[in-house]
Design a protein that fits this description.
Blueprint: H1 2-8, E1 13-14, H2 22-30, E2 35-39, E3 44-48, E4 57-59, H3 87-92, H4 99-110, H5 116-133, E5 140-148, H6 156-165, E6 168-174, H7 180-189, H8 194-198, E7 202-206, H9 209-212, H10 217-235, E8 238-242, H11 263-280, E9 284-286, H12 288-295, H13 297-300, H14 303-309, H15 318-331, H16 353-356, H17 368-372
Parallel strand pairs: 1-4, 5-6, 5-7, 7-8, 8-9
Antiparallel strand pairs: 2-3, 3-4
Helix pairs in contact: 2-14, 4-5, 4-6, 5-6, 6-15, 7-10, 10-11
Length: 373
């Protein structure tokens, strides 16, 4: 009689009163980061793919801030893009459209606010359209190689969809895990290598913090320079260097600068010297060290997920990563655009000039309302 209960027991976890760092514990606990919560005020049941139906976590009574649990499939942080209520219907029609109409529809859907599932669906539809039509009129082909030291396999969908927003049909070559330097060496010395055959028009170097801080800042920067020069001499293409994400703990707290050999201090020194070095070599920077400040490091990085699968960039931030990368790719091809549209009344000044007249406008020093504008 005890056997069924004992078989089920390893998969039943009851968490008592108190707050837990769910983003850090659940991926390790369940072996699956793609959790989909179903919540009520008293109980939360989480189920994910990749483990048996019995592997269900029940959060028992009293979890005081269960609302803090954020599934990976939350909407991306693109508030300037509109929501599409008809997204699924419009996407289904893509397969029935001719090449030019399919390209227009895909680009139109890419300019809406998407969650992770919609981003993946749109990317799949884009790849299927390319397979069916060969080329998509109106989209500029671009070959991008991703060379990294950590897991990057979750990044291509967000990059391709962000490229669609800018009229780019991005084809991606992803180097084997951690083989970025070997790939560059092979391409330099062997014309038959996979990277050389791909012949990228842009190369992204995405090296993680722990990899670069395993040595001194000077040695790390020498390594980056070597990679840049190998890439440039072989392909004569745009090279984009990802800055180092500040994910390392500080060993000395506020006195970290007094221990310059600590990993966090080495990281800071690399990021401090990298902009000038990149400018001297005409290398574009994907400034992750500054980008993560907008959403917060916890949105971009989960230590548990790093230890589990070497994801330095969290999957929920993949689309945002692709958005910032696509801006650099588009700008290098003359596709960047800025448009500022303002309703000047009650925006640049207080009042409605058509109703109040020039004398009724409040603007400038001497008035709290005027200074606010």
């Amino acid at each position: 009689m005890l056997l069924p209960f004992l078989l089920f027991l390893p998969f039943l976890v009851v968490i008592p009163e108190g707050d837990l760092p769910l983003s850090s514990t659940l991926p390790l606990l369940l072996g699956n980061p793609r959790l989909q919560p179903r919540a009520s005020p008293r109980t939360i049941v989480l189920k994910g793919r990749g483990f048996s139906p019995a592997a269900t976590v029940f959060f028992a009574r009293g979890f005081s801030r269960w609302g803090n649990l954020k599934p990976y499939n939350q909407p991306m942080h693109f508030p300037w893009l509109p929501l599409r209520e008809d997204f699924d219907d419009a996407l289904r029609e893509v397969k029935t459209l001719p090449a030019a109409a399919a390209a227009n529809r895909l680009r139109e859907l890419a300019t809406s606010r998407l969650d992770l599932t919609q981003t993946t669906k749109l990317d799949r539809a884009f790849l299927n359209a390319l397979k069916s039509h060969g080329t998509l009129p109106g989209l500029e082909p671009l070959r991008l190689a991703i060379l990294g030291s950590a897991t990057t396999s979750h990044l291509p969908p967000g990059i391709r969809v962000a490229g669609l927003r800018r009229g780019l049909a991005i084809e991606i070559y992803e180097a084997p895990y951690g083989m970025y330097y070997q790939e560059l060496n092979q391409a330099l010395n062997s014309p038959g290598s996979a990277l050389h055959s791909f012949n990228p028009q842009a190369i992204l170097l995405a090296l993680d913090a722990r990899h670069l801080t395993s040595t001194t800042a000077a040695s790390a920067l020498d390594l980056l320079q070597s990679c840049w020069r190998k890439a440039r001499s072989t392909f004569h293409c745009q090279v984009i260097q990802q800055t180092v994400m500040p994910v390392l703990p500080e060993l000395m707290g506020s006195n970290e600068d007094r221990m310059p050999s600590s990993p966090a201090a080495v990281l800071s020194e690399i990021n401090r010297r990298l902009p000038q070095l990149a400018a001297d070599e005409s290398i574009d920077l994907l400034a992750l060290d500054r980008i993560v400040l907008d959403e917060g490091l916890s949105f971009w990085h989960d230590p548990a997920l790093w230890h589990r699968s070497k994801h330095e960039v969290h999957p929920r931030a993949a689309a945002l990563y692709g958005e910032h990368l696509a801006r650099l790719l588009a700008a290098a091809r003359g596709r960047s655009a800025k448009c500022l549209v303002l309703d000047l009344d009650n925006t640049l000044w207080s009042g409605v000039i058509g109703d109040d007249g020039l004398e009724g406008i409040v603007l400038g020093q001497g008035s709290e309302i005027g200074e606010a504008h």
